[in-house]
Design a protein that fits this description.
Elements lengths: L1 E3 L2 H11 L7 E3 L5 H13 L6 E4 L15 H29 L3 E5 L12 H20 L6 E7 L2 E2 L2 H5 L4 H6 L7 E2 H12 L9 E4 L15
Parallel strand pairs: 1-2, 3-4, 4-5, 5-8, 6-7
């Protein structure tokens, strides 16, 4: 079951995956709680309570000091990265708890462990994801459910293109001089985490490209 804002990308993913697995797609913006609830209720009514809930929706918007920041960018990040994750989790988790099986995986960020200049509100949103992952685990004590986060460093996706509002040249400069992670690398890690025996729960994991050692130390070839 795939949810996303962009119907064209959902359709492309469905075509790619459809030869291997049954795919069901729904156009959902996680910032709209009413839409999230309706889409979740429709799945639950069909008996489609997820075994694995992957909260992957997230973005960074802009790069500025707090006193120069754009409040619209702040709303976009907090509504997506924090409130969107909460809305989707709240919609499905009661049904997973009732069944007493399942795994929630939140895609966080290394930016939720260490801040960087002008990342302030994005940092705050990912610190929140980290706290929520820990809190959800505590709330799930006594159940068989697990909750994990995967917190990447540099990954070559549309992340920088979104942050720089479609400026392709500036986005590509982000990844010059080193080999970043790929979306497939993160998918492999998620697959590993959810495939572990039921008595093993990875609460959080940070993953970097080899060239990167923390938020501030990254080796780039000249």
């Amino acid at each position: 079951m795939l949810w996303a804002r962009r119907s064209d990308r959902l359709a492309a993913a469905a075509r790619e995956l459809g030869a291997k697995v049954s795919v069901r797609t729904t156009t959902v913006d996680v910032r709209d709680r009413a839409v999230v609830v309706r889409a979740a209720d429709a799945l639950v009514a069909d008996g489609a309570v997820p075994d694995i809930l992957l909260n992957n929706a997230g973005l960074a918007a802009g790069l500025a000091k707090v006193y120069e920041g754009n409040p619209d960018d702040w709303d976009l990040m907090l509504d997506t990265n924090v409130k969107g994750l909460l809305s989707v989790t709240r919609a499905f988790l009661p049904h997973m708890v009732a069944r007493n099986t399942g795994h929630v995986v939140n895609i966080g960020s290394s930016a939720g462990h260490q801040v960087y200049p002008m990342g302030n509100v994005y940092n705050a949103s990912k610190f929140a994801v980290r706290a929520l992952t820990e809190a959800i685990n505590v709330d799930l004590a006594g159940t068989a459910l697990r909750c994990s986060s995967v917190d990447p460093g540099y990954v070559r996706t549309d992340f920088s293109k979104v942050r720089y509002k479609g400026d392709e040249a500036r986005a590509q400069k982000t990844y010059e001089g080193f080999t970043p992670l790929t979306a497939e690398d993160i998918a492999d890690l998620v697959t590993y985490i959810v495939s572990l025996p039921p008595h093993v729960n990875i609460l959080e994991t940070r993953v970097f490209p080899t060239a990167q050692r923390n938020q501030h130390v990254i080796h780039k070839d000249s």
